[in-house]
Write a structure and sequence with these properties.
Elements (H helix, E strand, L loop, with lengths): L4 H24 L19 H23 L3 H27 L5 H26 L5 H14 L1
Length: 151
């Protein structure tokens, strides 16, 4: 069974979304045991910036999944590749920050490292997709028309 690059990319984005939900869930599990998971110096209120950042971490991959399913243009493939690189950089920064928390919560490190590796794979497949020749009928039609006019 051969899966297209677009199919692989969609699968990797879905794994990413499930992974981020699981990573967040792991951070909240201590609540079930009565532990305090509140971040120090926050006065019990989440900064609006973090809420918007978390929303973006969900919405952008969700949009990428839908657009990848329906769009094969070179411009979109380039934008998509840049998006995957951005998410990989963000995940790397997240790993660095998680390693600076004391005590280090190793199950959180493992989950974010798995997300990072998934992101690297997403980068590779996205780059392969970007390098594919454009197979859209519009492009072939334009090339054929130009070739006929030049004859």
């Amino acid at each position: 069974m051969s899966i297209s690059k677009q199919g692989k990319i969609i699968a990797l984005w879905i794994v990413f979304l499930f992974g981020t939900v699981f990573h967040t869930q792991l951070a909240l599990m201590p609540l079930l045991y009565g532990e305090n998971v509140m971040m120090p110096d926050t006065q019990g209120k989440m900064p609006a910036f973090e809420s918007w950042l978390m929303l973006g971490m969900f919405v952008l991959p969700a949009i990428a999944i839908v657009v990848t399913a329906f769009n094969n243009s070179r411009r979109y493939r380039l934008i998509h590749f840049c998006l995957t690189v951005l998410f990989t950089v963000i995940n790397f920064i997240h790993i660095v920050f998680d390693l600076s928390v004391q005590p280090i919560v190793w199950h959180q490190i493992v989950s974010i490292v798995l997300l990072f590796v998934n992101g690297l794979l997403l980068n590779i497949v996205s780059l392969q997709w970007l390098r594919e020749r454009d197979k859209s009928p519009k492009l072939r039609k334009k090339v054929t028309v130009k070739a006929v006019k030049n004859s």
